[in-house]
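Final paragraph of the annual report: two paired records, presented back to back.
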Amino acid sequence: MIMENSLLQSKRGYHIEPGTREKALLLEDPVLNQFKSHKRNVHGLKRMGDVLAVVVAAGCCYMIYVKSVMREEGQKEPRSINEGL
């Protein structure tokens, strides 16, 4: 019975309205607006970072492909030279 009552009680406690100090801290301060980045600039910067990450990944995949093709060609050339003799 005691276990059931403790499980039914909220672990967060009761809701209490914030006081005047808490409300004042939650208000926006106009002095700090000059230090906040604008959403458009942040969105553009994130998009540029995503594009740069895709370009770098594509470049890495291309280099891996080129190296594997060059390795295959390098392994085939000595055999064809030896077969011609």
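The closing record of the year follows.
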Amino acid sequence: MASTDKPAEHEHKTTSRIGALVSGVTYLFDVLLRFLLFAASVVVIVVIVTSNQTVIISVDSLERRVKKFKHSAAFIYFLVAFCVSGLYSFLSALASISIILKPDRKLKFLLHFIFWDTLLLGMIASATGTAGGVAYLELKGDESLGLVKVCVVYNTFCSHLAGSLAVALLGNLVVVLLIWFSAFTIYSRVPK
């Protein structure tokens, strides 16, 4: 007589293998998002650091004016925030890889990821908004504050700023996806 326990046991093993495969794929997605955040942070850092332009104002005296990101505290804050973002994303990608290798610690890591990702999102979103506000003032100027349009003269500098802000917005979106991903993964583990 054939035992009825074997098919049920086989189904359980198959189900656990599929669950482990799905879990591995979802954490691989987490690692890929974290490396995408790292890449975005590096691009923002490189573009903002290289955003300097020298313009000759007067031909007679060869007066030169240099515009660099260092001339604005908002751009320095922007740079520092994305330096922290790059370091954090690299370290958290390594932690995500360790989750794939040792899945017994995944819930603890996911709770930590939600906490730290949310703090990081607040920091880089505020830095992006601050740098974007200053860049907008440099683009459009403000007569009531006595600010002239800087981007008319320093167009290369402003195009670097625009590029770094666009990539920074992508980095913000990636962090939002990471938070949603961690929260959804924790939610899916809650017994129904």
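The chain has four helices and two strands. This concludes the annual technical report; the extension proposal builds directly on these records.
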